[in-house]
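Hi U.,

Before I forget, here's the chain from the pilot set. I'm dumping it here mostly so it's searchable later in email.
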Amino acid sequence: MNILDVDECLVLLRWEAIGRLAVCIPDHAPSVVPVNFALSHGTIVFRTDDGQKHDHLMGQQVSFQVDRFDWFRRIGWSVLVQGVAHEADPSVLEGVELESWVPGHMPHVVQIVPTSITGRRLQLNVV
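Structure:
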C-alpha cells in the first residue's frame, strides 16, 4: 500500500461520481449509503431528500469513502474524507455538475467540510 497525499486524493475524487456516506445513528449501527456527489472548492457536495439520513447527518461528524479497484490486475485506490456535514446554500453548486441519480426532487444540498483526507493506493508487486 502506498499513502496518497491530499492533492492526489482530490484528483481521484474528481474522477468519480459515487461514494459511500457513513452516518452514525443513535442506538444503531452506523448507516452506510451510496450517494452521487461532486467536489466544490475542496468539499464534498450532494443532494438528499428529507428522511433519516438527512436528519442524522446535519452538524455531525461523517465519513465519506470513494474507491476504485481492478480485481483482475489487483490494483486500486481508496480515499477517505472525514468531516462535518451541514446544509449548504444551493449556490455552492454553481459551476458544479451534480445531477441526482435517484428520481424525484432532492431539496437539500449537503456539504461535507473535510477535517481529514487520506488515501491509499494498492499496486501489485511483481517479483
